[in-house]
Structure formats: C-alpha cells, structure tokens
User: Fold this.
Amino acid sequence: MDIAPQTEADTWAVAGRTFRSRLVVGTGKYKSLEETAAAIAASGAEMVTVAVRRVNLSDPSAPMLQDYVDPKVYTYLPNTAGCHTAKDAVRTLRLAREAGGWNLVKLEVLGPPPHLYPDMQATLEAAEALLRDGFEVMVYCADDPVAAKRLEDLGCVAIMPLGAPIGSGLGIQNAAMLSLLIEQTKVPLLVDAGVGTASDAAIAMELGCTAVLLNSAIAHAGDPVTMARAMKLAVEAGRLAHLAKRMPRRMGADPSSPLTGLIR
Amino acid sequence: MTVTLNGQPRNLGAETNVAALLALIGLDTRKVAVERNEEIVPRSAYTQTWLKDGDALEIVHFIGGG
Assistant:
C-alpha cells in the first residue's frame, strides 16, 4: 500500500502555523550544542521548545542555541520553566517575544519536586495574564478535564497534559484520562512529559493525540540521535495506527487461518 | 554610574545607552533581549535608551530547554 501521499497531507496546525511533523522536541539536557542539533535533525521535528535565561556575561562570545538550531528553520516555542507565578511567566515570555519576535509560547507553572506536577491554579492565572497580553499559549497541564476545559475556554491554543511526571520516562500512565481529554478538546492536544521510549510515543499517538512533546527520552538515551529517529518513526506509526483504527480487542482467540479445507 | 547587570553590579561611564552597553559586552543584538527595571527595551529603542545610575538590567537569550 502506498501511504506516502496520505502522510504528506496529514498536517496539524496551531496558532495559524501548519506542521507536518507530530513530534515536538525539547532542546535541553544534551551533552553539547552539536548533539542537540544532530538529534533534532534526526527527529524530524519542526517545532522545538527553548528556555529563556540570562546571558553569561563573562563569556559573551560563547556559541548560542540559535547558531545550532536555526529559528528560521524550526519554530521556537519558548517555555516558562522555572517560573512559579503568573508574574514571572509573563515577564519571561515578554523577553522571549522580544528576543524571538513571535508570540507562540509554552506555559508551564510547576509544583515542587519530586513530582513537578502542574500547579493548575497558578497555570490558569498565568494563562489569563498571557492571553491578555497577546500571547498564543500552548499550555502544560494536569490530566484534569475540568482544568483543561477551563484553559481551552480561556483561549489557549493547545492543551498539553502530562503522561507521567516530567523527565520520569515512565510512559503513558493515564491512557483513560488522556482519552477523555482527547474526546473533549477542540484545539490540538499534545502529550507533554512522561514519554520514555518509542513505544510510549506510539501509544500516545494511537490514543489520538495531535502530537507528542518530549525532551529527556531523546536527550538521556544512550544514543540520542538514534532515539530521535526512533521517536520520529514511532510518532508516525502511532498516527497511522490511529487513522487506520485498530481491531477490536476480544477475550478469546480467533484463528487467522481458515478452518475449512483441512487435510484429514 | 553603577547599574545591576544580570544581578551583578557593574560600573559604566556616564552617557551609556543600551546599544553601547551591548557593544561593550560584545553581544549580538539579534540574539538577546533586554529588560530595564522590569520593562522590555525594544531593539528599536536601544540607541535612545540611556542608562541611569541604579538601573537594573537583564540581558537574556534562548538556551536549551524542554
């Protein structure tokens, strides 16, 4: 079966931008900027998350992320990692908007370690403030259908629940809740956090997620570039399986070979 | 005059604007953003934004993140 034309046409859009790749990758935790660039290229991602931090003034000529991951090639999605209040999130992303010149952002307001679970009250406050300020907000959130609906109603452009705690690599621990969220959400829904290996990404896509966002699963793999490629294929496979609609599960066996015409 | 630059005190000559400060540090203005006393300084305003004693400046850029 020739599936190439179908996958080519199978795009998704957020905030007026259309993407072919359903894998969004982080740019953190790599050993070097060279490795970052190679892994991102292998992943086929078109959107990458980035953090906003103070420039190291003692080494101003140090290479910067943009030198390796070209913002003209990849859509940068600045995040609010490290922000614990709406004020910090707005301040950080205003700087990001000035540095990058665009207003599509990833909001994340986290609770304390060891779970770094999304702080939904603070997230809702920050989302309101950012939307008022003209940002287009893709929002990391709990798998809480009530809070997710509220974020969508506020005007967030993508809902991004966790599959497991950030950086845990535990995989999709909440398939039932994600299915509920997929069912109710009208904007793109991305699993953001929890994916540990390729099969986890495939499971998220089979459930019907629009896309998958991950970082550690690639950056902390033994061979990040090979894992990036595995993730690309897993997301594509999961997406195709979702579109193809899996067979029903049954409790008993159903032989694949006909029972007629057996030799006696 | 003394300003606070990314949390550290720094002595600067009088009559310094943001453009001159970035040139002094050696930063590519296309890759950074500047905040002065918690207000964004737009790139287009770097040459007109004159620093005052006691100003708090943040100069940020994009780094790897998830």
Observations:
- The radius of gyration of chain A is 20 Å.
- Chain A has a mean pLDDT of 93.
- The interface with chain B takes residues 26-30, 33, 36, 49-55, 57, 60-61, 64-66, 76, 78-79, 81, 91, 94-96, 98-100, 166-167, 215-216 of chain A (CB under 8 Å).
